[in-house]
Design goal:
42% of the residues lie in helices and 14% in strands. By secondary structure, it is α/β, with parallel strands linked by helices. The protein has two domains: 194 residues, Rossmann fold (3-Layer(aba) Sandwich), CATH 3.40.50.150; 80 residues, DNA polymerase, domain 1. A seven-stranded mixed sheet has the order 3-2-1-4-5-7-6, sandwiched between helices.
Length: 316
């Protein structure tokens, strides 16, 4: 596998990110019961800062594997003292680390599964199809697998499955054929142009975004094993909810949303046979998925694909 040894040359001060659906989320977090709120995708701490400001009864434990995000979050949360605790790790370790810290139940949790603007907008991170850079896409630079490894070493069938499963890419076969013919690829610019050329002209004209958007999304998910760890992590956090606790998940992709909805529904239905009342302590906090407002869409077009789902544990 290719390994990129050098960490991207950006620092925490450059990590500015507008939290998606912030007003809707903060309205919920502001009313949480006193206790611990777990932000499993801390990023630049936008949601965490808003939660701590809106609810003085909360302590935030934030989790992220991106060192640049951790640097930014540490700076932004410094003023909150011991009300903010930061963990540099993947979110699938959150429940274990909370318990190691003596936290047995939580007032709420948030998972914002989108890639952040600072990651997209820095070419050296390799996430962007608009800015040329190395084919990297690692959230954690200590990981070894990069997007270049996937593009250049996966068998055609494996690559086809990645693009279809994680990108919902309808032109996956054409894109994979083009990649096979052009290997090796080393930069995002090369890949973005290759994908654009592989997609039929009629489809490019109908598309509202870049033709490579779905391919890059699929590769990012595969590089960081995002869907592999989502379901079990969500289950573990739901199990930790205290009475009246609320779990929130923001998804941006049909696969993420499907896993989120299924795991929440399983917790809510419990062991009850179909059509029978459930004895589960969990309920939908609100039905269905909420989406960004027209005002937010105008300000932040990247929020267009966001879906917010929420589960709560009822008081016993």
């Amino acid at each position: 596998m290719m390994t990129l040894e050098r960490r991207p040359n950006i620092d925490g001060e450059d990590f500015h990110h507008d939290p998606v659906m912030e007003s809707e989320i903060i309205e919920i977090l502001g009313n949480l019961q006193p206790g611990v709120f777990a932000d499993l995708t801390l990023g630049g701490a936008g949601h965490a800062v808003a939660a701590l400001t809106a609810n003085n009864a909360l302590t935030v434990h934030g989790f992220d594997r991106d060192d640049v995000a951790i640097d930014a979050a540490s700076a932004r949360l410094a003023g909150f003292g011991d009300r903010a605790v930061i963990h540099t790790t993947r979110f699938d370790r959150a429940a274990d680390l909370l318990r190691e810290a003596g936290v047995e139940s939580i007032s709420g949790f948030l998972m914002d599964l989108g890639v952040s603007s600072p990651q997209l907008d820095v070419g050296a991170r390799g996430f962007s199809y608009r800015i040329d850079g190395p084919l990297d896409m690692r959230m954690d630079h200590r990981d070894t697998k990069t997007a270049a490894d996937i593009v250049n070493t996966y068998a055609p069938g494996e690559l086809l499955d990645v693009l279809r499963s994680y990108g919902d890419e309808r032109h996956a076969s054409r894109i994979v054929d083009a990649i096979m013919s052009a290997r090796p690829l080393s930069t995002t610019g090369e890949l973005a142009q290759l994908v654009a050329d592989a997609v039929p002209a009629a489809a490019r004209r109908k598309s509202t975004g870049h033709p490579a958007k779905r391919t890059f999304q699929a590769l990012r998910i595969e590089v960081n094993a995002e869907l592999e760890i989502l379901g079990d992590t969500l289950e573990s956090m739901i199990d930790m909810l205290a009475p009246n606790g609320v779990g929130l998940v923001l998804t941006y992709h049909s696969g993420e949303d499907r896993i989120t909805k299924d795991r929440m529904r399983t917790a809510i239905d419990g062991d009850a046979p179909p059509g029978m009342p459930t004895t589960s302590p969990y309920r939908w906090f609100f039905r269905g998925a909420r989406t960004a407002s027209d005002t937010e869409l105008e300000r932040n077009p990247r929020s267009r694909s966001a879906r917010l789902r929420a589960i709560t544990r009822v008081a016993s």
